[in-house]
Design a protein that fits this description.
The complex is a heterodimer of chains A (134) and B (155). Chain A has 2 helices and 7 strands, in the order E-E-E-E-H-E-E-H-E. With 134 residues, chain A is an alpha+beta fold. Chain A has one domain: Electron Transport, Fmn-binding Protein, Chain A (Pnp Oxidase, Chain A). Chain A has a 7-stranded antiparallel β-sheet. The longest helix of chain A has 17 residues. The model of chain A has no long low-confidence stretch (mean pLDDT 87). Chain B is α+β, with helices and mostly antiparallel strands. Chain B has a single domain, classed as Electron Transport, Fmn-binding Protein, Chain A (Pnp Oxidase, Chain A), CATH 2.30.110.10. Chain B is built from 4 helices and 8 strands. In chain B, strands 1, 2, 3, 4, 5, 6, 7 and 8 form an 8-stranded antiparallel β-sheet that branches. In chain B, a hairpin with a 6-residue loop joins strand 5 and strand 6. The chains are: A alpha+beta (134), B alpha+beta (155).
Chain lengths: 134, 155
Amino acid sequence: MGITLEDLHPAFQGVVPSAIITCSAEGEPNVTVLSQVYYVDHEHVALSFQFFGKTIRNIEQNPYAAVLVHHPETLALYRLDLRFEHRETEGDIFDEMEMQLEAIASMTGMEDVFKLRGADIYEVKSITKLDDWA
Amino acid sequence: MIPQEIVDFIYSGQAGAVGSRDENMVPMLAMCWGTSIRDTEGVVITYVVQEQYEQILKNFNNNGRVTVTLVETTSYRSYQFKGQFLEARAMTPDEVDFQRQFRETVVAGFNSGGYPYEVADRYVGRADLAIEFKVEEIFDQTPGPGAGKAVELAK
Protein backbone atom coordinates (compact mmCIF):
# COMPACT_ATOMS: atom_id res chain seq x y z
CA MET A 1 0.00 0.00 0.00
CA GLY A 2 1.30 3.46 -0.88
CA ILE A 3 1.92 6.34 1.48
CA THR A 4 -1.17 8.42 2.23
CA LEU A 5 -1.49 12.01 3.36
CA GLU A 6 -2.92 10.68 6.62
CA ASP A 7 0.42 8.93 7.25
CA LEU A 8 2.12 12.31 7.06
CA HIS A 9 -0.06 14.23 9.51
CA PRO A 10 2.79 15.05 11.91
CA ALA A 11 4.77 16.50 8.99
CA PHE A 12 2.18 19.24 8.64
CA GLN A 13 2.91 20.89 12.00
CA GLY A 14 5.54 23.22 10.60
CA VAL A 15 8.26 22.17 13.04
CA VAL A 16 10.87 21.81 10.28
CA PRO A 17 10.62 24.32 7.39
CA SER A 18 9.56 22.88 4.05
CA ALA A 19 10.77 23.76 0.57
CA ILE A 20 8.61 24.38 -2.47
CA ILE A 21 9.54 24.34 -6.13
CA THR A 22 7.54 25.95 -8.93
CA CYS A 23 8.43 26.73 -12.53
CA SER A 24 7.73 29.75 -14.71
CA ALA A 25 6.08 29.45 -18.11
CA GLU A 26 9.52 30.09 -19.63
CA GLY A 27 10.98 27.11 -17.80
CA GLU A 28 12.87 28.72 -14.92
CA PRO A 29 12.52 26.63 -11.73
CA ASN A 30 12.29 28.43 -8.38
CA VAL A 31 12.83 26.95 -4.91
CA THR A 32 11.91 28.79 -1.76
CA VAL A 33 11.15 28.17 1.90
CA LEU A 34 7.65 27.33 2.99
CA SER A 35 6.51 27.65 6.57
CA GLN A 36 3.26 25.73 6.35
CA VAL A 37 1.80 22.71 4.58
CA TYR A 38 -1.75 22.07 5.78
CA TYR A 39 -3.71 18.82 5.46
CA VAL A 40 -7.09 19.42 3.78
CA ASP A 41 -8.34 15.92 2.90
CA HIS A 42 -6.96 12.62 1.60
CA GLU A 43 -6.18 14.16 -1.81
CA HIS A 44 -5.41 17.79 -1.03
CA VAL A 45 -3.07 20.04 0.94
CA ALA A 46 -3.13 23.81 1.37
CA LEU A 47 0.00 25.93 1.21
CA SER A 48 0.22 29.32 2.85
CA PHE A 49 0.28 32.26 0.49
CA GLN A 50 1.98 35.09 2.36
CA PHE A 51 3.97 37.18 -0.11
CA PHE A 52 3.57 38.17 -3.75
CA GLY A 53 6.75 36.49 -4.92
CA LYS A 54 7.91 34.29 -7.77
CA THR A 55 6.15 31.25 -6.34
CA ILE A 56 2.77 32.91 -6.70
CA ARG A 57 3.57 34.32 -10.14
CA ASN A 58 4.77 30.91 -11.31
CA ILE A 59 1.69 29.10 -10.01
CA GLU A 60 -0.51 31.53 -11.92
CA GLN A 61 1.37 30.57 -15.12
CA ASN A 62 2.03 26.89 -14.46
CA PRO A 63 0.04 24.92 -11.84
CA TYR A 64 2.67 22.26 -11.11
CA ALA A 65 4.68 22.35 -7.89
CA ALA A 66 6.40 20.01 -5.45
CA VAL A 67 7.18 20.32 -1.75
CA LEU A 68 9.53 18.54 0.63
CA VAL A 69 8.17 17.82 4.09
CA HIS A 70 9.80 16.26 7.15
CA HIS A 71 8.29 14.08 9.82
CA PRO A 72 9.08 16.12 12.95
CA GLU A 73 10.04 13.14 15.11
CA THR A 74 11.84 10.79 12.72
CA LEU A 75 12.98 13.49 10.25
CA ALA A 76 11.84 11.12 7.48
CA LEU A 77 11.64 13.10 4.25
CA TYR A 78 8.85 13.05 1.67
CA ARG A 79 8.24 14.79 -1.65
CA LEU A 80 4.67 15.71 -2.58
CA ASP A 81 4.04 16.37 -6.29
CA LEU A 82 1.22 18.90 -6.56
CA ARG A 83 -1.14 20.66 -8.93
CA PHE A 84 -2.67 24.01 -7.94
CA GLU A 85 -6.48 24.06 -7.85
CA HIS A 86 -7.70 27.28 -6.26
CA ARG A 87 -7.15 29.91 -3.55
CA GLU A 88 -9.32 30.49 -0.48
CA THR A 89 -9.18 33.81 1.38
CA GLU A 90 -11.83 33.04 3.98
CA GLY A 91 -13.57 30.08 5.54
CA ASP A 92 -12.59 27.23 7.84
CA ILE A 93 -9.37 26.19 6.10
CA PHE A 94 -8.14 29.79 5.92
CA ASP A 95 -8.99 30.43 9.57
CA GLU A 96 -7.31 27.25 10.80
CA MET A 97 -4.21 27.92 8.70
CA GLU A 98 -4.02 31.47 10.00
CA MET A 99 -4.13 30.19 13.57
CA GLN A 100 -1.47 27.55 12.88
CA LEU A 101 0.71 30.09 11.09
CA GLU A 102 0.54 32.41 14.08
CA ALA A 103 1.76 29.55 16.27
CA ILE A 104 4.64 28.77 13.86
CA ALA A 105 5.54 32.47 13.70
CA SER A 106 5.57 32.68 17.46
CA MET A 107 7.86 29.61 17.73
CA THR A 108 10.30 31.02 15.18
CA GLY A 109 10.21 34.70 16.11
CA MET A 110 8.58 35.66 12.81
CA GLU A 111 5.41 37.27 14.22
CA ASP A 112 5.98 40.48 12.27
CA VAL A 113 6.75 38.63 9.03
CA PHE A 114 4.28 35.79 8.60
CA LYS A 115 0.81 36.93 7.53
CA LEU A 116 -1.60 34.70 5.67
CA ARG A 117 -3.07 36.20 2.49
CA GLY A 118 -4.56 33.03 1.12
CA ALA A 119 -4.83 29.27 1.49
CA ASP A 120 -3.73 27.78 -1.82
CA ILE A 121 -5.35 24.40 -2.36
CA TYR A 122 -3.36 21.78 -4.29
CA GLU A 123 -4.22 18.30 -5.47
CA VAL A 124 -1.56 15.81 -4.35
CA LYS A 125 -0.57 13.85 -7.46
CA SER A 126 1.94 11.56 -5.74
CA ILE A 127 3.94 11.09 -2.55
CA THR A 128 7.51 9.81 -2.61
CA LYS A 129 9.61 8.86 0.41
CA LEU A 130 13.11 10.18 -0.21
CA ASP A 131 14.98 7.98 2.21
CA ASP A 132 15.01 4.31 2.86
CA TRP A 133 14.45 4.00 6.57
CA ALA A 134 11.19 3.06 8.23
CA MET B 1 32.02 37.02 -7.56
CA ILE B 2 29.77 35.85 -4.77
CA PRO B 3 29.61 38.37 -1.87
CA GLN B 4 31.64 37.33 1.16
CA GLU B 5 28.64 37.18 3.51
CA ILE B 6 27.04 34.63 1.20
CA VAL B 7 30.28 32.68 0.87
CA ASP B 8 30.35 32.54 4.68
CA PHE B 9 26.70 31.41 4.69
CA ILE B 10 27.43 28.62 2.19
CA TYR B 11 30.27 27.31 4.36
CA SER B 12 28.39 27.66 7.64
CA GLY B 13 26.81 24.24 7.21
CA GLN B 14 23.37 24.78 5.70
CA ALA B 15 21.36 22.03 4.03
CA GLY B 16 19.09 22.88 1.16
CA ALA B 17 17.11 21.78 -1.85
CA VAL B 18 18.07 21.37 -5.49
CA GLY B 19 15.45 22.00 -8.16
CA SER B 20 14.97 21.29 -11.83
CA ARG B 21 12.11 20.92 -14.30
CA ASP B 22 11.27 18.53 -17.12
CA GLU B 23 10.19 19.17 -20.73
CA ASN B 24 6.58 19.65 -19.60
CA MET B 25 7.62 22.33 -17.07
CA VAL B 26 6.89 19.99 -14.17
CA PRO B 27 9.32 20.87 -11.37
CA MET B 28 11.21 18.37 -9.21
CA LEU B 29 13.33 18.81 -6.10
CA ALA B 30 15.43 16.88 -3.60
CA MET B 31 17.78 17.68 -0.74
CA CYS B 32 21.45 18.62 -0.95
CA TRP B 33 23.89 18.02 1.84
CA GLY B 34 26.77 20.47 1.78
CA THR B 35 27.79 23.05 -0.78
CA SER B 36 31.08 24.60 -1.81
CA ILE B 37 32.24 27.08 -4.43
CA ARG B 38 34.97 27.80 -6.92
CA ASP B 39 34.35 31.49 -6.69
CA THR B 40 36.92 32.67 -9.21
CA GLU B 41 34.83 30.85 -11.81
CA GLY B 42 31.42 31.52 -10.21
CA VAL B 43 30.88 27.79 -9.89
CA VAL B 44 28.80 26.30 -7.06
CA ILE B 45 29.16 22.62 -6.22
CA THR B 46 26.52 20.89 -4.17
CA TYR B 47 26.65 17.36 -2.78
CA VAL B 48 23.73 14.98 -3.10
CA VAL B 49 22.61 11.38 -2.70
CA GLN B 50 22.64 10.05 -6.27
CA GLU B 51 19.80 7.55 -5.93
CA GLN B 52 17.37 10.45 -5.33
CA TYR B 53 18.48 12.30 -8.46
CA GLU B 54 17.57 10.10 -11.43
CA GLN B 55 14.89 12.45 -12.80
CA ILE B 56 16.70 15.60 -11.73
CA LEU B 57 19.86 14.56 -13.59
CA LYS B 58 17.77 13.81 -16.69
CA ASN B 59 16.30 17.29 -16.41
CA PHE B 60 19.73 18.89 -16.01
CA ASN B 61 21.01 17.08 -19.08
CA ASN B 62 17.92 18.06 -21.09
CA ASN B 63 17.61 21.76 -20.27
CA GLY B 64 20.47 22.72 -17.95
CA ARG B 65 18.48 24.88 -15.54
CA VAL B 66 19.59 24.45 -11.92
CA THR B 67 18.37 26.09 -8.75
CA VAL B 68 19.72 25.49 -5.25
CA THR B 69 18.25 27.07 -2.11
CA LEU B 70 20.16 26.86 1.16
CA VAL B 71 18.29 27.41 4.42
CA GLU B 72 19.34 28.07 7.99
CA THR B 73 16.50 26.19 9.64
CA THR B 74 16.62 28.04 12.96
CA SER B 75 16.32 31.54 11.45
CA TYR B 76 14.82 30.79 8.00
CA ARG B 77 17.66 32.85 6.47
CA SER B 78 17.95 31.50 2.95
CA TYR B 79 19.53 32.17 -0.42
CA GLN B 80 18.67 30.79 -3.84
CA PHE B 81 21.36 30.22 -6.47
CA LYS B 82 20.24 29.89 -10.09
CA GLY B 83 22.37 28.91 -13.02
CA GLN B 84 23.43 26.52 -15.74
CA PHE B 85 24.33 22.88 -15.15
CA LEU B 86 27.95 21.97 -15.86
CA GLU B 87 28.37 18.37 -14.74
CA ALA B 88 27.53 15.66 -12.23
CA ARG B 89 30.57 13.69 -11.14
CA ALA B 90 32.07 11.54 -8.41
CA MET B 91 33.24 13.45 -5.35
CA THR B 92 36.96 14.01 -4.87
CA PRO B 93 38.64 12.80 -1.65
CA ASP B 94 38.73 16.41 -0.39
CA GLU B 95 35.02 16.75 -1.08
CA VAL B 96 34.30 13.50 0.74
CA ASP B 97 36.15 14.92 3.77
CA PHE B 98 34.31 18.23 3.44
CA GLN B 99 30.94 16.49 3.28
CA ARG B 100 31.82 14.28 6.26
CA GLN B 101 32.57 17.41 8.30
CA PHE B 102 29.33 19.00 7.06
CA ARG B 103 27.39 15.92 8.17
CA GLU B 104 29.01 15.97 11.60
CA THR B 105 28.13 19.66 12.05
CA VAL B 106 24.50 19.25 10.98
CA VAL B 107 23.99 16.03 12.94
CA ALA B 108 25.41 17.73 16.05
CA GLY B 109 23.07 20.68 15.47
CA PHE B 110 19.99 18.48 15.32
CA ASN B 111 21.28 16.46 18.28
CA SER B 112 21.71 19.59 20.41
CA GLY B 113 18.25 20.68 19.26
CA GLY B 114 16.76 17.62 20.94
CA TYR B 115 16.84 14.93 18.26
CA PRO B 116 18.41 11.60 19.26
CA TYR B 117 21.81 11.16 17.63
CA GLU B 118 20.64 8.10 15.64
CA VAL B 119 17.72 10.04 14.15
CA ALA B 120 19.89 12.98 13.14
CA ASP B 121 22.62 10.72 11.81
CA ARG B 122 20.14 8.79 9.67
CA TYR B 123 18.55 11.99 8.38
CA VAL B 124 21.58 13.84 7.07
CA GLY B 125 22.46 12.41 3.68
CA ARG B 126 25.74 10.69 2.91
CA ALA B 127 26.37 12.39 -0.40
CA ASP B 128 28.01 10.44 -3.19
CA LEU B 129 27.64 12.82 -6.12
CA ALA B 130 28.87 16.36 -6.83
CA ILE B 131 26.71 18.62 -8.99
CA GLU B 132 28.47 21.63 -10.51
CA PHE B 133 26.72 24.62 -11.98
CA LYS B 134 27.65 28.12 -13.06
CA VAL B 135 25.82 30.68 -10.95
CA GLU B 136 24.03 33.41 -12.88
CA GLU B 137 21.85 34.93 -10.16
CA ILE B 138 21.49 34.82 -6.38
CA PHE B 139 18.32 35.76 -4.53
CA ASP B 140 17.72 36.46 -0.85
CA GLN B 141 14.85 34.08 0.00
CA THR B 142 14.59 34.85 3.71
CA PRO B 143 10.83 35.04 4.37
CA GLY B 144 9.46 38.56 4.43
CA PRO B 145 8.40 41.32 2.05
CA GLY B 146 11.92 41.42 0.55
CA ALA B 147 12.04 37.71 -0.23
CA GLY B 148 13.15 37.10 -3.78
CA LYS B 149 15.30 40.22 -4.03
CA ALA B 150 18.33 39.75 -6.27
CA VAL B 151 21.73 39.91 -4.59
CA GLU B 152 24.27 42.08 -6.38
CA LEU B 153 27.26 40.01 -7.40
CA ALA B 154 30.59 41.62 -6.56
CA LYS B 155 32.86 42.59 -9.49
